[in-house]
């Protein structure tokens, strides 16, 4: 706005200066016109003097008033400048003087002839008057030229000022516009940055919400798992449940649950689940797994530099990860939980943590189940021979008998007693007697089938139930047992003990009895008879 006003003011001033310059030129032109008219009148007067042609006289008469007019116009033109007005008056006066001298010459010619007029010119008066006029004109012209110079300078200065104003007026808005644009661009960038940060914050929030939902879902699954785990009756159930839960938590991964054998020298797969990214051995020594060696969780993937376990197959995918969680409780290694998957399927640290929690829960459960199992075994087995005890025998004989009866199958009971065991004890010591009984127990396990039930009935007396075995088969088996025990050589305290013999009584369902009591009594009676007939023999019930 200010720049515009200054520019307009500058233009007005410039135009005013220019008008003054034009005015100066006008003044100079007017001086020339005055002189030109004077010279025209002078020329016509001279021509008339020389030719006496009235046409020239008429021309002179026409030129003379113009001289006065031009001189008056010159005075009017410089009316604003007193010095120049005075000079203009001087020019007018001298021009009129020159005209008057010409007129006097013309009158002289008209009255005395051309010769007289020509003679009059020789006085030089005309040349002096003309010279005076030229000098007056020159003085005025010089003064006007000085004015012209000053006015041109003023005009140029104003022109420069206007140009300056215009340039400033043009560049300033451009500069301001540039600054404004830079500010806007900065603001725009800031807004975009804020938008980006807001977007990232939203994405992070969503991620956190998804993670929170996933974690609460994991907690729910783990809570249910822990509850169900406590109700598992055996290791098989616990392993199957664990497989299902790991599958639920890591649907794109898979693996195996392993159980440590009682010998502690092999870890055996007890169940598989999901789709593992890489296979893992069924049966392996514990040394094949870094987690079992070190007793701590072992991971391999791009973020973990852990060594690959020997039980895991070769890498099939670049984004593959493996996780081995040792299952241990009370300082005893119970097994291993092994999972493998691929990072691209979205499994994360939280899921790995969940698998570790599963490992901890499972370890506790395995320890409890093993404890329960050992208590159960203890309550059912004889600790010296590891054979079933009498309580177990009585419970199962009834059940097996019913099963065989329902299916129309035979069942045989053998009663076995070590001959002269008292003497053996007396000669070799009670500990040697124990060693012998334990060895006899092993023979009985070796020579019976899985479904047969070998028990220590009490003392040096054993009972074997052979479901589905008839008298003939059972007698053959009894002979084999008798022969095997007869050829035993037991080494105790670096001494070879024995040999010993056994007597066996055999009773068969349905021939010798239909109830557990009757069968046991029949077998015992047969054993008694075997003893009576000299021992080291098999006697079939006579009932
Ligand atoms: N070392 C040991 N001895 C036992 C155990 N249970 C019972 N005995 C002994 O076994 C012996 C059984 O002796 P007896 O019943 O007289 O029978 P036996 O000497 O084998 O004679 P026969 O049966 O007639 O051939 C007793 O001396 C018991 O002390 C045991 O767990 N360990």
Automatic annotation (TrEMBL):
Q: Which cofactor does it need?
A: Mg(2+)
Please provide the Gene Ontology terms (biological process) for this protein: cell adhesion involved in single-species biofilm formation; negative regulation of bacterial-type flagellum-dependent cell motility
Instruction: Report TM segments.
Output: 161-184
Superkingdom of origin: Bacteria
| InterPro entries named in the record | CHASE3, Diguanylate_Cyclase, GAF-like_dom_sf, GGDEF_dom, Nucleotide_cyclase, Rev_trsase/Diguanyl_cyclase
User: What is catalyzed by this enzyme?
Assistant: 2 GTP = 3',3'-c-di-GMP + 2 diphosphate
- Record's PANTHER family? DIGUANYLATE CYCLASE DGCM-RELATED, REGULATORY COMPONENTS OF SENSORY TRANSDUCTION SYSTEM
- Which NCBIfam families does the record cross-reference, listed alphabetically? GGDEF (TIGR00254)
Report what the protein is called.
Answer: diguanylate cyclase
- The source organism is Cognatilysobacter bugurensis
């Amino acid at each position: 706005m200010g720049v515009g006003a200054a520019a307009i003011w500058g233009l007005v001033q410039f135009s005013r200066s220019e008008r003054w310059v034009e005015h100066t030129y006008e003044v100079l032109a007017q001086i020339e016109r005055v002189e030109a008219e004077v010279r025209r009148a002078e020329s016509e007067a001279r021509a008339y003097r020389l030719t006496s042609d009235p046409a020239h006289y008429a021309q002179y008469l026409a030129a003379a008033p113009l001289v006065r007019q031009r001189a008056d116009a010159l005075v009017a033109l410089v009316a604003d400048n007193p010095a120049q007005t005075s000079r203009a008056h001087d020019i007018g006066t001298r021009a009129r003087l020159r005209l008057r001298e010409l007129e006097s010459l013309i009158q002289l010619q008209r009255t005395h002839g051309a010769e007289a007029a020509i003679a009059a010119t020789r006085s030089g008066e005309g040349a002096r008057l003309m010279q005076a006029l030229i000098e007056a004109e020159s003085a005025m012209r010089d003064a006007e030229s000085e004015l012209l110079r000053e006015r041109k300078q003023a005009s140029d200065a104003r022109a420069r000022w206007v140009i300056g104003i215009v340039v400033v007026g043009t560049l300033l808005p451009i500069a301001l516009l540039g600054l404004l644009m830079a500010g806007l661009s900065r603001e725009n960038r800031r807004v975009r940055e804020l938008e980006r940060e807001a977007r990232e914050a939203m994405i992070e929030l969503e991620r956190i919400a998804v993670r929170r939902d996933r974690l609460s879902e994991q907690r729910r699954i783990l809570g249910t798992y822990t509850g169900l785990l406590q109700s598992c009756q055996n290791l098989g159930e616990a392993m199957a449940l664990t497989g299902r839960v790991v599958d639920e938590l890591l649907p794109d991964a898979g693996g195996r649950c392993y159980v440590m054998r009682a010998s502690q020298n092999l870890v055996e797969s007890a169940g598989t689940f999901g789709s593992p990214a890489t296979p893992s051995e069924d049966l392996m020594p514990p040394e094949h797994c870094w987690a079992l060696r070190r007793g701590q969780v072992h991971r391999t993937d791009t973020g973990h530099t852990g060594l690959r376990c020997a039980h895991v197959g070769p890498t099939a995918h670049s984004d593959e990860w493996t996780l081995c969680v040792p299952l241990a409780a009370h300082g005893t290694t119970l097994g291993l939980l092994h999972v493998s998957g691929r990072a691209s399927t979205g499994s994360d640290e939280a899921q790995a943590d969940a698998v570790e929690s599963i490992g901890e829960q499972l370890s506790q459960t395995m320890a409890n189940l093993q404890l329960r199992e050992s208590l159960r075994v203890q309550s059912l087995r004889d600790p010296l021979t590891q054979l079933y005890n009498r309580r177990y025998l009585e419970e199962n004989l009834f059940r097996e008998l019913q099963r065989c009866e329902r299916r129309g199958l035979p069942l045989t009971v053998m009663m076995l007693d070590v001959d002269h065991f008292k003497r053996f004890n007396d000669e070799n010591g009670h500990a040697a007697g124990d060693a012998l009984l334990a060895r006899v127990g092993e023979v009985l396990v070796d020579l019976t089938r899985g479904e047969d039930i070998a028990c220590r009935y009490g003392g040096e007396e054993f009972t074997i139930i052979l479901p589905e075995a008839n008298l003939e088969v059972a007698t053959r088996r009894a002979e084999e047992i008798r022969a095997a025990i007869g050829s035993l050589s037991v080494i105790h305290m670096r001494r070879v003990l024995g040999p010993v013999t056994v007597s066996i009584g055999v009773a068969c369902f349905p021939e010798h009895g239909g109830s557990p009591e009757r069968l046991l009594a029949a077998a015992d009676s047969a054993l008694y008879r075997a003893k009576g007939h000299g021992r080291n023999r098999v006697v079939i019930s006579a009932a």
